[in-house]
Design brief:
The structure is a homodimer of 224-residue chains. The first copy, chain A, is an alpha+beta fold and 224 residues long. Chain A has helices spanning 102-106, 112-138, 141-156, 172-179, 183-195, 212-219; strands spanning 28-30, 35-37, 45-59, 65-71, 76-77, 88-101, 158-160, 163-167, 199-203, 206-209. In chain A, a hairpin with a 2-residue loop joins β9 and β10. Chain A binds a DNA duplex (30 and 30 nucleotides) through α5.
Chain lengths: 224, 224
DNA sequence: CGGGTTCTTGACTATCTTCAACGAAAGTGG
DNA sequence: CCACTTTCGTTGAAGATAGTCAAGAACCCG
């Protein structure tokens, strides 16, 4: 999951795994805290998230970290470059994954249908990342946090009458490293949103969006 | 071209167009200032840059701009998502392009060899963009500018004895919008680098790297 | 319950942006 | 080809946004 321009949302297959003829392995379960792969590992499998949440990260030698993406149901993670992984990937919330052999992506003959779907997933990935650039490069702290909450509530929020509730399984540090901020700034921005009654913080990891439209406005640059 | 982690450079086909059997159209020439496509356009062609420089941009309604990438020789631009372009693309420096039908990417049957090469290009794109995230989200102004110059000098710099000379065809505003900075900050940072004798500014669009190692160090976080 | 981690908040600081002015470069039209 | 205009780049001063450092509160887990 990246922070994309909200209006561009399309109903892509977020809750079904891809069709496949032969090259689909059985679904696997992974526990929170375990790693799927590390940067530099050879790529054998791609994984489509069925349930749970993954975290893709990159590290700089001096410890600075960038969370590249969160893997939510529907997302495909593990796209290789030169057969090698270029991020670490670990499990934030117990997850079930549908593994696909990377050879299916690299060789169209074995399973043409699945090959096409994986290719489309890769292309969507590129497009989503382009949106995310805009956010990292050009948005303010409050716009970033508002965008993040907006996207997340659209994707995994549960309707609660007029409001939308959502779980934030990741830490404030994860959000900060995803948005290019510090934990303190994320925390302060959330407090600001709470004080202006746009969100309510049920508990640290549960947020209720009280005014979705206001949140969306903020994410596009309206001043708080 | 993205700002990638410098040590990861690999000798990918930057100066040859891909092999192809049938679906390769003739090379086309495009003039500086012309647009290849706009955001929202249907995608019919991918383009591999043979010579010249392209610029891929995205705009926010309020005018804020993000330069997504510069297209240098070897780069492939125009990857679609849902058959639609998600950036604008225009020509910075007169260019020659090798167009490939997007159907070749989307359908592996017509030209399997070319299909594979385009797919690999898309996967490299994803990996490069991941690196670029780190830069946008976690690097300081001087690290960003140093990274940018470092990558560019590696890719298109001309050896000049111990030094490397390179052309910056893009404006300061382009560099700023690429790195998530303002033109003023880019300008000031370049002046700083000049005053500390790491680069020389031959003229506004020509820069000589006097101390490549120092520049690389800066890009990784060494203080000026 | 206790110890460690995570989150929040405050005070202060640094970095980058904004606003403004000026000079250099590039484009335009006579 | 030169004068004029406009755009682009650099620099300075002031201000704002986000970062740093520090302390206490809340939360989590055994």
């Amino acid at each position: 999951m990246y922070v994309t321009i909200p209006t561009e949302f399309s109903a892509i297959s977020q809750n079904n795994t891809f069709t496949s003829l032969t090259t689909k392995s059985t679904e696997t379960r992974v526990k929170a805290g375990s790693y799927l792969y590390y940067e530099g590992d050879d790529v054998d499998w791609l994984y489509q998230v069925t349930s749970g949440v993954l975290r893709l990260t990159r590290l700089l030698e001096d410890g600075r970290r960038q969370v590249i993406a969160f893997g939510y149901p529907g997302d495909v993670v593990g796209f290789p470059s030169d057969h090698v992984h270029h991020t670490d990937c670990d499990v934030l919330v117990d997850a079930t994954l549908q593994p696909y052999r990377v050879s299916v992506l690299e060789n169209g003959d074995t399973d043409p249908l699945l090959h096409k779907e994986l290719l489309q997933a890769a292309l969507r990935e590129i497009s989503s990342m382009q949106d995310h650039f805009m956010m990292l490069g050009r948005k303010s702290a409050s716009e970033k946090v508002a965008s993040f909450l907006s996207v997340l509530s659209d994707r995994v929020g549960q309707n609660l009458g007029d409001y939308k509730q959502m779980n934030l399984p990741m830490s404030r540090a994860d959000i900060a490293d995803f948005l290019g901020l510090t934990t303190e700034t994320v925390s302060r921005t959330l407090t600001q949103l709470r004080k202006s009654k746009i969100i309510a913080i049920e508990n640290v990891h549960t947020i209720i969006v009280l005014r979705p439209t206001a949140l969306l406005g903020l994410s596009a640059g309206n001043t708080l």
